Amino acid sequence: MLIHPWDAGSGEQSLAYLRENAFGHLIASGRGREVPVVVPTQFLLVDERTIWLHLARPNPIWAAVEENPKVLLSVAGPWSYIPGAWRAEPGTDPSLGVPTTYYSSVQVTCRAEIVADEAGKLEILRAQLGDLEPGHGDPAEMPRLLSGLQGLRLAVEEIRGKFKYDGHKDAALRGQVAKGLAGRGGPGDESALRHLA
Predict the structure, then answer these.
(1) Span 161-178, mean pLDDT?
(2) How far is 163 from 191, CA to CA, in rounded Å?
(3) Do residues 138 and 120 touch, judged by C-beta distance below 8 A?
(4) What 8-state DSSP symbol labels residue 133?
(5) Cβ-count burial of 83 within 10 angstroms (0-12 exposed, 13-18 middle, 19+ buried)?
(6) 39 pairs with which residues across the strands?
(7) How far apart are CA 38 and CA 36, in angstroms?
(8) Pick from 4, 21, 9: nearest CA to 159
(9) Is pLDDT at 136 greater than 90 in this prediction?
(10) pLDDT tens sequence across 73-111
(11) Domain at 8-196: CATH code
(12) More confident: 138 or 154
């Protein structure tokens, strides 16, 4: 992912984004494959160096992880299209303004460990359920669930965040874009407005 200096997120900002957006794409390249295996998944950021998740046993990612445990977790969104007229420099014909898309994206390079034992799977499930649905029944009482999945512990090696919101543009132009976003109120516009504030 291309990250300009004005788009780069700090480690703290990138971790906060992962906590707030705990759904992404886990990508395992394996070895000698024409394309990597890409799996959309919920995950739990346990701490700044650890991510846990679980997937169904028939998932094709297990073979790729066994071939090569280095994986990438990619999280992006929400996004908002910014029309060129909103970004036209003062004195420029609005039809010649350069459009763009505002978005946030964090990519985490990790070393994956497959968790197949019951105690390990229960630890992951209890942590995820405790985060997403506190008070839910104990997964230990759902043997069919346990037998149908495996867990993954991801050890974070590198985290890269991109927060593309015209950070290199002056306040007047950013204000012009903010006015357009507030008036439009489309999908992703509220998130983009928060980044412009």
Answers:
(1) 94
(2) 11
(3) no
(4) S
(5) middle
(6) 26
(7) 6
(8) 9
(9) no
(10) 999 999 999 999 999 988 889 999 999 999 999 999 999
(11) 2.30.110.10
(12) 154
SS3 187: coil
**CA-closest candidate to residue 126, choices 108, 141, 148, 144:** 141
Are 19 and 45 within 8 A, CB to CB? yes
3-state secondary structure (DSSP) of residue 165: coil
Burial track 145-164 (b if 16+ CB lie within 10 A, e otherwise): ebeebbbbbbebeebbbbbb
Q: Where in the chain are the domains?
A: 8-196
Q: Rg (Cα) of the chain, in Å, rounded? A: 20
Q: Is the pTM of this model over 0.90?
A: yes
- Which residue is it, tokens 């994956």? 112
C-alpha span between 6 and 37 (Å, rounded): 32
